[in-house]
Design brief:
Blueprint (H helix, E strand, L loop, with lengths): L11 H8 L6 H9 L6 H10 L13 E6 L5 H10 L4 E8 L5
Parallel strand pairs: 1-2
Length: 101
Amino acid sequence: MTLSLFQVVATPRLAREAFFSDDLADEQLQEYWEQMQDESFMAFLDMVALDLPKPAKVKTPFARPGVARDNMLKPSEIEATARAYSTQSEINRRCGAQQYA
C-alpha cells in the first residue's frame, strides 16, 4: 500500500534470499544489509513493465555476463537477454552473486 520496496530486504535474511548466496559470511551480509535503503516503486515499474528495452535499437556489440548462482536472474534469463540482443551470454558457473557486490 505504501509503494515501498524495502519489505523485500527488510531483514538480513530477506536480503540474503534476494541478493546473496548462502555462503556469504553473516558479518559481510550484515555490513551490506546496513547500507540498503528503499527504492522507487515507480522506477521498479518502469524497469519491469513500462519502459522495456528495445533490442532492435542497440547497435553496439556487447557480451551479457552472469553467474550461475545469481539470486535475481537465472542463467536462462541471462541467455534469453543475450539472444534478444543477438549476442553471447557468459555464465560464470564457479562463483555467486556476492563476489560482484
